[in-house]
Write a structure and sequence with these properties.
Oligomer: single chain
Structural class: mainly beta
Shape: rod-shaped
Number of strands: 9
Largest sheet: 5 strands, mixed
């Protein structure tokens, strides 16, 4: 029991959560490609971008995936995102690659 006019003392200890980096790249027929493409990074941290390469810093540790929304190289289609999921460790860096394949005529 707390006596009348008594006091309670609380001590709060805050610790900054270690964070990491998520990189998003793209390829066209296996070669590095940069340009406009809309995608989202999904995990403990959620964000989106409209171009690659993309860098997302200060992301909390956990499992991440990238989802494709639209865009990419002209006359191409997205064939895969590699890897589909990754675990970001505190202080670590993970890289996702949007893989496009040319579908048009002459390039």
């Amino acid at each position: 029991n707390l006596p009348s006019n008594g006091a309670i003392t609380f001590t709060l200890n805050f610790h900054k959560q270690a964070s990491g980096t998520v990189l998003v790249r793209a390829t066209l027929n296996g070669s590095a490609w940069s340009g406009e493409v809309k995608y989202s990074v999904c995990g403990p941290y959620v964000d989106s971008s409209s171009s690659v390469p993309g860098t997302f810093r200060n992301c909390p540790a956990g499992t991440y995936a990238v989802t494709y929304n639209s865009g990419g190289p002209h006359q191409s289609r997205l064939t895969s995102i590699t890897p589909p999921r990754q675990n970001l460790s505190p202080g670590g860096t993970i890289t996702f690659t949007l893989n496009f394949t040319f579908q048009g005529g002459l390039r």
